[in-house]
Amino acid sequence: MKSIIKKLDGGICAPKGIKASGMYCGIKESSNPDPGAEHKNDICLFTSDIPANTAAVYTTNKVKGAPLLVTKANLEKSGGKASAVIVNSKNANTCNADGVEKAEKMCALVAKELSLPEEQVLVASTGVIGLVLPIEPVERAVPVLAKSLDYTKNEEAATAIMTTDTVKKEYAVEFEIGGKKCRIGGMAKGSGMIHPNMATTLNFITTDCNISGALLQKALGDIVKITYNCLSIDGDTSTNDMVLLMANGLAGNAEITEENDDYLEFKEALYEVMGTLTKMLAKDGEGASKLLVCTCWGASDVDKAITVAKSVVCSTLFKAAMFGEDANWGRVLCAIGYAPAEFDINKVAVEIASEFGTVKVCENGAGVDFSEEKAAEILSSDEISINIYLNEGERCATAWGCDLTYDYVKINGDYRT
Fold first, then answer.
1. 223: part of which helix (H) or strand (E)?
2. What percent of the chain has pLDDT over 90?
3. Which end of the chain has less neighbouring CB within 10 Å, N or C?
């Protein structure tokens, strides 16, 4: 890296030319009948001052939410340009006969209010699957959202996309390309129904860097592979998962049109944002008490390292052991063993680590003596690292997850109600 990546406030509004707004519109009826009661935001809008090159990655689930279908169609019609995105929570608008009609209506409402071509408005929804989306609250909300748009209202938008999330998730950075300051900002939602592959959860990223649409899509695909696609909470891939990346070019750098040093600078900054959001998503898994970070070292290639690391963080038995703070390293070896990758298990070593220290629990594919007391201390942390060494090459990859707790069952046992 030639430039220094600096953390910024501002979330999706950190880049030049990005406005946002958010509010409560009543998509899901409140349990509090008091009209003066405070309610959590459930709808947001964000815009770019000029049409932005836009890249997207969508869920691999065969059942796809109507908003994804409409967003994909609009991007195809607009030639990969977008000016506005409307997002609602509490209702996924999925598996509904009128789903596409409602999603298109949301885009049309925004387009009319902001005098935009309908194909330059994108839409996303998250929440309960199979419930008909009431359009009336959205119709009432859009004029208010449009009038409220501001360069400082990133938090209103970030809170509006939350469902079972306990905290908002946003992050932004600044870096230089060609002497011009560029910024990337993002927000994400997700706490459950998160699993590779694709992009897992709803993620919206904006940048004022000037980069071609083709390279924007390539960069997004490359970074998704080593961030969101290495995240698992519960093994369920949602119907509405999507990542949108918008680049409006207002930073004023010369357009990036080839895979040169400027492109690598951009990708490094994009990884910083997407990697940080991935970690936030893992830490806020439904009912989670511990963030699990599994890194596979010494692989012959990155794909193998990803496969092995993901196999461990996806293991239900291992996740349960981490909740119980049990150094049951055999569950790590078991998960490594059924990973769909070829390597010599007799060369594998495993460590568990946290801010309280590190212990080696396996060497050459077999257990070694270690202090159970020290291991228990290490596992008492709320962030635990699992280091796997294949000892066959120089490549590495990290996967993120969380422990499996009683609260996960409680949350999902009455999700609709």
1. helix 213-226
2. 61
3. C
